[in-house]
Design goal:
Helices cover 34% and strands 17% of the residues. It has a seven-stranded mixed sheet with strand order 1-3-2-4-5-6-7, sandwiched between helices. Helix 3 links the parallel strand 4 and strand 5. Helix 1 packs parallel to helix 5 and helix 2 packs across helix 3. It is globular. The N terminus and C terminus are likely disordered.
Length: 226
């Protein structure tokens, strides 16, 4: 893919890391994409295409995702990119397929303010988490016919995540196995464009409750939540 370039940041080791950088404007979003086991960045090119089309000012990087023991290094890497391009954790999304999904989930769990979203394609946590950061919204995307990671395991996890009040969505594609299917990619973009994090709803609701009532005839309209 011609548009994938090496990221020009001499203070960071970006060996084997590919990036898609907006040419004219400052990035307003950061996507960190992590490929699956025994695969390479090309596995994620369809996701790159979809994200770039939907979010043209996003910075998209594809670091190697081979060693799950280096989660802290991945977090440090992301923080350096955020600092260089002045992108916040809330403007950052970690996404991955299979092993890459597990790395994205575990990294966001261990580093609460690192990413506002996680897109997990055909992957789950390494161990069932007892708690998750309120600052991160998790989106699971799964194939109903996944034989490597059966759907029942996803359903069991989701039940637990509901019990700990995690901010989670799940989308399941019928007749899809363990693959980064176009239907799941399309749904991921929709989730990014339309889902409001639970913390935002809570904050907005709290403001509504705490705000004093307007006097009758004041002419002001009630606030609208988007």
């Amino acid at each position: 893919m011609r548009f994938l370039l090496f990221l020009p940041m001499p203070d960071i080791d970006f060996s084997e890391t590919l990036a898609l950088i907006p040419k004219e404007d400052k990035p307003n979003l950061l996507f960190v994409l992590l490929h699956g086991e025994s695969a390479g960045p090309e596995q994620l090119y369809p996701l790159v295409e979809a994200l770039k089309k939907a979010f043209p000012l996003a910075l998209i990087i594809l670091p190697p995702a081979e060693d799950e023991s280096r989660l802290d290094e991945l977090a440090a890497f992301v923080r350096k990119v955020q600092g260089h391009y002045k992108v916040s954790g809330e403007q950052t999304a970690l996404a991955g397929f299979s092993q890459g999904a597990r790395m994205a989930l575990e990294t966001s769990r261990l580093h609460a303010d690192l990413a506002g979203r996680v897109l997990a394609f055909s992957g789950l946590y390494q161990e069932t988490p007892s708690a998750l950061p309120e600052t991160t919204m998790i989106h699971f995307f799964h194939g109903a016919d996944d034989l490597l990671l059966p759907l029942r395991e996803v359903e069991t996890l989701l039940q637990h995540l509901g019990e700990i009040q995690a901010d989670v969505t799940v989308d399941v594609a019928s007749q899809v196995g363990h693959e980064l299917h176009p239907a799941l990619i399309e749904q991921a973009v929709i989730r990014l464009q339309t889902c409001v994090p639970l913390r935002s709803w809570k904050e907005a609701y709290g403001q509504l409750v705490e705000s004093p009532r307007e006097e009758e005839g004041g002419g002001s309209e009630p606030p609208t939540l988007h």
